[in-house]
Amino acid sequence: MGSIGMISRIDHITILLSEEEFKSPPPWLSDNFTIIEGGKHTGQASQLKLIVFADGTYLELFNWWAQPPEGHTWGTKSPGLIDWSISSMSTQTPAEHFQGVSQRLNKYPGGDGNLGVSFPEPTGQGRTTPEGLKLHWTRANPDFHNASETPNEKFFPTGRLDSPFVCYDGSPRLTRLKFDDPARVTHPCGATGVDQVEVVVPSSHMNNYSRLLSSIIGSPPSTAEGQPGCMFTLGLPVENKGECSIWLHGERNRKDEQWLDTRGIGPLMLRLRVKGREGHGEELLGKDGSATHVSLVW
């Protein structure tokens, strides 16, 4: 399937690393992926490494090298899978796409699912590569406030982060990521791109979060066949590479409940497409820690 008719695509997924993990990535990362040094961000004490895929998506391996800015939504998070972002397809400019997001959230009552989510205007961001190249993009992190359907604070044990952010290319994406370079996008595990981001929310608020994501993404969900919850379809940066999905569901078992208790509402699992394997299957990248929340699917 292609991306015809979609107005939003996945941009990237963020995995927070501790200082030790950033200096020496754990085997579940280093043995499976080609890891690129990304440099330091402009204007804040953070740095990144990149895992770039042939479909134009990437994993941001993020680390604070000093005190996070006050109020930053990632500043209180513990290492692991923490966030994901969307962007515009080629059929819209970033400004047009963001205007649509804002209108859908704000123009109609309950556009945010009455959860208390809005977005400020995107602002310029940047990083300097180890080679000294300055790269730019714009992004908007969600603003949160209490509203009639905001979940209990127990679902935000490390701070509220129950909405994706929006991120738009400034420097050309190919210049920034070089996903046309086989040396950067060939990985030992065979991963070629993002297949699915799985998001867990309280069952009591499924309808609210479905409405919120519908407004942000710009399209309604479909039924998750044979599974609880619902599915949203997103395009990919390389638009002829197909599409990916966001699987939204409530807690299904004790493991999901424990995730909500300890990590809070947000991404639970990242699934990556892999080539070169027969049949259909799924394999976790490890047996403990963050590795149990990233898998390969074929």
TrEMBL record:
All residue ranges annotated as the Glyoxalase-like domain in the record: 11-203
Organism, scientific name: Penicillium coprophilum
Signal peptide: none
Name of the molecule in the record: Glyoxalase-like domain-containing protein
Annotated InterPro entries: Glyas_Bleomycin-R_OHBP_Dase, Glyoxalase-like_dom
Entries under Gene3D superfamilies matching the protein: 2,3-Dihydroxybiphenyl 1,2-Dioxygenase, domain 1
Pfam family for this entry, one: Glyoxalase_3
